[in-house]
Amino acid sequence: MIRIYNTLTRKKEDFVPLEEGKVRMYVCGPTVYNFIHIGNARPMIVFDTVRRYLEAKGYDVNFVSNFTDVDDKIIKKANEEGVSAEEISQRYIAECKKDMAGMNIKPATTHPLATQEIDGMIDMISTLIEKGHAYEKNGTVYFRTASFKDYGKLSHKNLDDLQSGFRDLKVSGEEDKESPLDFVLWKPKKEGEPYWESPWSEGRPGWHIECSVMSKKYLGEQIDIHAGGEDLIFPHHENEIAQSEACNGKEFSHYWMHNAFLNIDNRKMSKSLGNFLLVRDIEKKYDLQVLRFFMLSAHYRSPLNFSAELMEAAKNGLDRILTCAAWLQNQSANEGELTNQESEVVEEAKKYVGKFEAAMEDDFNTADAIAAIFELVKYVNTNKTDELSGKAAKALYEILKQLCDILGIIIEKKEEL
Ligand code: AMP
Ligand code: ZN
Fold first, then answer.
1. Closest ligand 1 atom to the C-alpha of 29?
2. CB 336, CB 390: distance < 8 Å
3. What is the spatial distance between Cα 309 and Cα 287, in angstroms, rounded to a whole number?
4. DSSP 76-96
């Protein structure tokens, strides 16, 4: 039984999907105004691995991950370069997909774009206004947080505390709000910004409404897993819950999963500290498989520190697995049937599959799963002889490959051209 730590209940729970054999999963994707950094890569790698494990267990996973392609940062970058916002977002979506391919992240079943879903957003905002959950002031539409009694349930924040915390916080242009906690669903355009027609103003949607709408369109009103980095818990995911549940009258997502942050040299990654690394920077020195392996060497809910030494250690660890795999692959060409003793060795090796799976079932503990792979490699290394039959080598190789596939680590030797 797979167990998942659910941010909503703050407990590990048995995973039971809404529909037997199927999983509906939504992962908040990046805002595309630059190349992705290694922090953005963490949720991509982690939740791709969750998806791969679920698929390996026989689930049919409908995996949706958006690109936020309308946003202040995109518009700013477009103005700096003197090109359209669309050109910026299209460019960095293409670049992001290249990085994802390098990290062996499977393309989502659907990668919706916010700009292509504006009609759905206008529909949902209209419904929220009709139901009294949203209101318009001077062309801006706000969500009325006081109308949603469960507001705060994901971040475990109490509405009164939130109110007092926000009392002094005035965002310019948002003076019309009934409460400081109310958030924008639609805002009027400023000069030179991309905009769409709506019943309220020529403008664009707020960020939170995107995900509620895209999730509903591609996965339905209720989903199994919603995921992203822990910085999204509040306000983004809290607001998504408010919008979706107020609109649809149903629980939005059953399980909420959040990865912890990636730091660099024990400090928060930030542009001002100058310790910002893009996936592209890593690629200059390493195969991106190494970055993937590094990310999975920690449990996804533990903070992970990036340093040159730790990357080197990840490279060495991965090399140990690849060397063993290459030896088995070569040896598979040998003649011969399994001897009795070899059959026992293969049976024994299967125990590590059990260990690997037990780790993955425990809230996707990839750190322990990798430890099980290392044990398997060690076991193979202590049992390998030049006389090992091709059949035995192949059987051992398949066991190793099965486990590495789940982590998205490629062990096949590339065909030499
Ligand atoms: P953004 O483009 O900022 O919306 O981020 C896209 C995804 O990357 C979100 O799920 C964020 O939570 C995640 N993310 C951003 N920075 C980091 C970091 N340093 N460590 C882990 N995840 C991050
Ligand atoms: Zn989202």
1. 6
2. yes
3. 16
4. HHHHHHTS-HHHHHHHHHHHH
Residue to substitute in 28, 33, 40, 64 for testing ligand 1 pocket (most ligand atoms within 8 angstroms of CB) = 40
Report the separation in Å between the CA atom of 229 and the middle of ligand 1, taken as the mean of its atom positions. 5
To which H or E segment does residue 323 belong?
A: helix 308-331
SS3 at position 326: helix
What is the rounded distance in angstroms from the CA atom of residue 277 to the CA atom of residue 41? 11
Q: How confident is the model at residue 175 (pLDDT cuts 50, 70, 90)?
A: confident
How confident is the model over 64-81, as pLDDT tens digits? 999 999 999 999 999 999
Closest CA to 406 of 347, 359, 351, 348: 359
Q: How far apart are CA 173 and CA 188, in angstroms?
A: 10
Whether the CB of 31 sits within 6 Å of ligand 1 = yes
Which residue from 107, 103, 108 is spatially nearest to 295, judged by alpha carbons? 103
pTM: 0.96
Residue 270 CB: number of other CB atoms within 10 A? 11
